[in-house]
Amino acid sequence: MDVAVVGKDSKYLETILLGEGFHISSDKPDIVFSYGGDGAILVSERLYPGIPKVTIRDSDMGYKCVFDKDDIKTVIGRIKNDDYKISESIKLEAVCGDYKGVALNEVQVHNKRPTRAVRFNVYVDGDMVYDNVVGDGIVVSTSFGSSAYYKSVGGKPFDDGIGIALNNPVDRKPSLVVPDSSVIEIEMLREVGQVFCDNHCEGMMILAPGKRISIRKHDGVAKFVL
Prior knowledge:
The chain is mainly beta. It folds into two domains: about 1-85, Rossmann fold, CATH 3.40.50.10330; about 90-220, Probable inorganic polyphosphate/atp-NAD kinase, domain 2 (Tumour Suppressor Smad4), CATH 2.60.200. It has four helices and 17 strands. It has a six-stranded antiparallel sheet, with helices on one face. A hairpin with a 2-residue loop joins strand 6 and strand 7 (about 100-105). The protein starts with a strand and ends with a strand. The relative contact order is 0.18.
């Protein structure tokens, strides 16, 4: 079986996998081992979208990781015996003109200049749900990411749908969870926003006043070995 390893200490895990008869391949792996924490999961999904991930934490952090470091030999044995299950999580896509970003955790629009608040409207399926918001931005989250940055800006973790939470608004408003079939649009009214998908700075785009970005469920899903 061809496998890839993503993480800060990938050589350690690669050595174990090679000893168990796996072939290390960064081309078209059958399974990807994400070794580290939650950040490694995001990177592994960005590099290998849709390929099943074995998520292993190497410390006390990594809340979304399924397995601990001590579970490595056990999960390797289950994979070799084809004795495992796969769970799936939706992803989001953000589109504006030629830009298209994909997120496992969240899409966020954040003020480009920290001394200047952005002003924007938010629509769900064409209906305005937040009018003339002034603040640092907005976070649109999957259920997988709802315990991450979305939670830190006031959203509550959820199991199904797409979450919308305002980031430090002047007028506090509750977060929303909408069906995952929804289309969310953010219309920038004043100042310049930056769009991030899973904090991927290299894939950032600028959202200028007068522009809209559309966020919806992505066609692909993330897959995790249980």
